[in-house]
Amino acid sequence: MNTAEPKQVKTGIIRSTCAAVYRVRRRIATGFGVVLVVFIAYHVVFGRNGVNSYEQKRAQDRELHQQINALQQENGQLKDHVSRLKSDPDAIEYEAREKLHYARPGEVIYTLNGQPQPANAATQPPSAPAGASK
């Protein structure tokens, strides 16, 4: 029976050693998995095409759609204006008189200065130059 005891002790030691090795390997693998998950999560949120970049691109997309809609409305108005200028003589005359300052033969056009002066500027005397003395 003495020969059986050392085999049992050896197998017990081997089993406990294998169990300890497996525990260490499992802990290392778990740690590696956690580090990998943290790295992937960081990349998903802050990476080149991450969530932050995605939100910025969505905001830019909304702005561009608003600009497109505004430009389409302006384009429609300009098309209407062009069609009126092609077909309506009154619209042509209005453009010629207002924008180009054309007149019919014998007419006189009076134009005024574009910007009126404020009321308080007219009542104040002009100021003297900075270096002038009396």
- Given the C-alpha coordinates, what overall shape results? rod-shaped
Q: Which percent range fits the helix content?
A: over 70%
Structural class given helices, strands, pairing?
Answer: mainly alpha
Number of helix segments?
4
How much is the radius of gyration in Å?
A: 44 Å
The proportion of strand residues reads under 5%
Low-confidence stretches: none
Helix/strand order, N-terminal first: HHHH
Give the terminus-to-terminus CA distance.
Answer: 132 Å
Number of strands: 0
Sheet with most strands: none
How would you state the average pLDDT, rounded?
A: 82
Can you describe this structure?
With 134 residues, the chain is an all-alpha fold. Among the domains are: 8-46; 49-101. 71% of the residues lie in helices and 0% in strands. The protein contains 4 helices and no strands. The longest helix is centred in the N-terminal third of the chain and has 43 residues, at 4-46.
Summarize the structure.
The protein has 134 residues and is mainly α. The protein is built from four helices and no strands.
Keywords for this structure?
134 residues; 4 helices
List the helices and strands and how they pair.
Blueprint: H1 4-46, H2 51-87, H3 89-98, H4 119-123
